[in-house]
Amino acid sequence: MSEAKIYDVPAHYSAAGTRNSPEDYERRYAQSVQDPDAFWAEEGRIVDWIKPFTKVKDVSFNADDLHIRWFEDGQLNVSANCLDRHLAERGDKTAIIWEGDSPDQSRHITFRELHADVCRFANVLLRKGVKKGERVTIYMPMIPEAAVAMLACTRIGAVHSVVFGGFSPDSLAGRIEDCESTVVITADEGLRGGKSVPLKANVDNAIRTPGGAGVKTVIVVRRTGGSVNWDGSRDHWYHDLMAGESAEHQAEAMNAEDPLFILYTSGSTGKPKGVLHTTGGYLVYATSTFANIFDIREDDVYWCTADVGWVTGHSYLLYGPLSNGTTTLMFEGVPQYPDWGRIGKVVDKHQVSILYTAPTAIRAIMREGDAPTLESKRTSLRLLGSVGEPINPEAWEWYHRVVGDHRCPIVDTWWQTETGGILITPLPGATALKPGSATRPYFGVRPAILDNDGTLLEGVAEGNLVISDSWPGQMRTVYGDHQRFIDTYFKTFAGVYTTGDGAKRDADGYYWITGRVDDVLNVSGHRMGTAEVESALVSHDAVAESAVVGFPHDIKGQGIYAYVTLQAGVEPSDELRKALVAHVRREIGPIAAPDAIQWAPGLPKTRSGKIMRRILRKIAAYEFDGLGDTSTLADPSVVDNLINGRKAG
Ligand code: WT7
Questions:
Q1: What integer is the mean pLDDT of 369-394?
Q2: Domain 11-80+276-305+312-342+388-513 classification at class level
C-alpha cells in the first residue's frame, strides 16, 4: 500500500488560490488536537450566534459518565445561518439549482426566495400546532420543497426525521412510531428515471399499520399530479397552506445542545437506530468541513448527488453549502436517465465546479465506457469528491482521468451518519493523494487503530478504527435509547468512539478504510443491517431460518447474499426465490433486495447455536480455502453441503 501512486497537489490548482496548503494543514492540525478548546472556540465563530457561547467543549467518553457537549451555553438557529445571514450580501444569489428528472426541467431559487418560502412554511407548521422539540417526519423526493421543509423545521425548533423515499410503508411506519411523530410531509409521487414512486400511497399504507396510527397531519406537495387518495380530515395540499401565509418569521433561538434532527440508520443488530444530532456543534462542524474540504469559493456551483434521505444529503447537500452561502445543485433524477452521459451534461448545463458523488455511481458510469461521459466538456469542474464506501483505485483513476480530465483533485471523504460530518479526508491544496486512501484526519479529529484486544497500535498498522476524542458534529444519543448509544459505540473499547470500520495506516500516516468489521452491509453506499434482512426473510411463511452476509459486487461494492433454510415440506423453486426477493423489497424497500439466495438445508453453527458468519462470508465470496477452524461446529458437514450448493448455483 505504501507503493501506491501519489498525486501531488497540482500546481495550477494552488495557483488559482486555495484556502489550504501543506504547511498550514500540519500547523493547524497540530494546534487543533493539542488545544481543541482554542481551535474550536475560533472555528465556532464561523456561524452566527444569537447568544455567543462561553464554554467550548465538555466531553467524557467514559461509558460510566458519558457526556458530549459543545458550545453548550450558546444560542443560534440553523435556518437563520443558512438563509437570513446571507440576505444582505447574497440575497439575489442562487441558493438552490434544481435539476429535474427530465433534462428540460430546472429551476433557480435565490437565497431571498428560499428564505421567504421557509418562513411561510415555518408559519404553516406553527399553524398546524407543531411545537419546538416535536418530531416531524419528511418522506419526500428530491425537490426544493424537501429543503424548505427541513429548513422550516429547524427555524421553529422542530426536530426533523427524513426517511428516504425508497423505504417501504412498513419501514416508514417503524420510524414514525419510534420518534412519535404526528406530522408527515410528503409528495403525491416522486419521479426517478421517468418512473413514478407512489409516496403518498406509501404514507397512507404506513398510517394504516399500528406504527403509523399516531399521524394526525399529512402535508402533500403536488409533484407529478398523479392521482392520490385523500382524507380531508388529515391531508392538506402544501400549496394551499402556503398561499395564505406570511413570508416573515423570526427564527427561534435554540440552545446549542437542543436536538436538530434524527436520522435512522442500520446497526449490526436490531431495528434501525435514530441517530440524534444537536444544533450548535453539528452546524459548526458541517460549515467548517464543507468550506475547507471543498475549498469553497464565492462563485462555486457545488453538486452533491446524495438524496436528502441520507446524512450526506443533510450535511453536504443542504446545511454545509447553505450555511456557507454556496449555490447547491439538487438533482431529482438518476445517472443513467435519459442516458449514461447525464452527469456530465448536468455539469455543463449548470457550470458545476465541484462534484461530490459515490463510488457505486462512478463504477456504474465507468462500465458504460468513456463515450457517454465524453459527450460533455466538463471544463467547469475544479474538484471531485467521493463518499459512502471505499473507492477502488481503478474507479478512482477513471474518475480522475475521464470525469476530471486529469485536472481535478479528488477528495475521498470518510465519515458516517453518526459523525455528522467528514472525519478523514484530503484537503485540496494541502494533501497529496493516493487512490483508494481517505488520507488524513480533519482538524480536531484523532483517529487511532486498535487490535481486537484494545491495544493501541502505532505507526504502520491494521485493525479497528476508533476516534480518541470528540468533534463537534458527533451524534449525541440514539433517540429514545441512550443505553444503546453507550453500548454500541463506547463499550467495545474503553474511552474511545468505536466506528465499526477497519483501517490500515501506512508509513506516511495515511488511512485506508478496509470496510465494516461488524454485521453492517454497505450496498451501493447504503447501509443495511444483516439482521434486518434476515428478519424480513423469516417473516415469510416458507422460511424457517436465514443468514445474510455481504459479498463482493462489481457495481454495488457489496451485494446481499442470503442463505435460506425453508420450512419442512416446502420445496425450493425459482418462483419461491423471486417471491422472497419481492417480499424483502416490500418489507424494507428495494435497496434491501437480496442479490443472491442460496438454499441452505443447514447453517454452520457453534454448539451454543451461534451462526458462524465468517464461514458464510467466505463461501459467498467463492473463497473455499482457508475457512479456518470448523471443528467447533455442531455439525461440520453443513459446510461441505453449502460449498457444493455455491458451486452448483
Ligand atoms: C459507513 C457509514 C458518510 C456518509 C455516507 C455513508 C463507509 C463512508 C467512506 C469512504 C470508505 C466509507 C464506512 C462507514 N464509508 N465513506 N470514503 N471510504 N468507507 O454513511 O450510511 O452512515 O455509512 O460507510 O464503512 O462506516 P453511512
A1: 97
A2: alpha beta
Nearest CA to ligand 1 atom 20: 416
Residue with CA closest to ligand 1 atom 6: 388
Pocket flag, ligand 1, residue 497 (CB < 6 Å): no
Helix segments in 305-358, DSSP class H: 311-314, 320-323, 342-350
Q: Is 500 in the pocket of ligand 1 (CB under 6 A)?
A: yes
Q: Which range, of 241-245, 309-313, 624-628, averages the lowest pLDDT?
A: 624-628
Contact 273, 264 (CB under 8 A): yes
Q: What's the whole-number mean pLDDT along residues 208-230?
A: 98
Residue nearest to atom 16 of ligand 1 (CA): 388
C-alpha cell of residue 624: 473455499
Per-residue pLDDT tens for 479-519? 999 999 999 999 999 999 999 999 999 999 999 999 999 99
- Pocket perturbation via mutation, ligand 1, pick of 308, 442, 464, 527 by most ligand atoms within 8 A of CB: 527
pTM for this entry: 0.96
C-alpha distances in Å from residue 39, one per residue of 202, 424, 443, 471: 46, 18, 9, 11
Cβ–ligand 1 contact at 389 (below 6 Å): yes
Task: Specify the fold of 524-645.
Answer: GMP Synthetase; Chain A, domain 3 (3.30.300)
Domain layout of the chain by residue ranges: 11-80+276-305+312-342+388-513, 524-645
The string of DSSP codes covering 536-586 is: HHHTSTTEEEEEEEEEEETTTEEEEEEEEEEPTTPPP-HHHHHHHHHHHHH
Condensed to tens digits (0 to 9), the pLDDT of residues 119-165 reads: 999 999 999 999 999 999 999 999 999 999 999 999 999 999 999 99
The binding site for Mg(2+) comprises 538, 540, 543
Distance 328 CA to ligand 1 centre (A): 22
Quote ipTM for the complex.
Answer: 0.99
Q: pLDDT-derived band of residue 346, with 50, 70 and 90 as boundaries?
A: very high
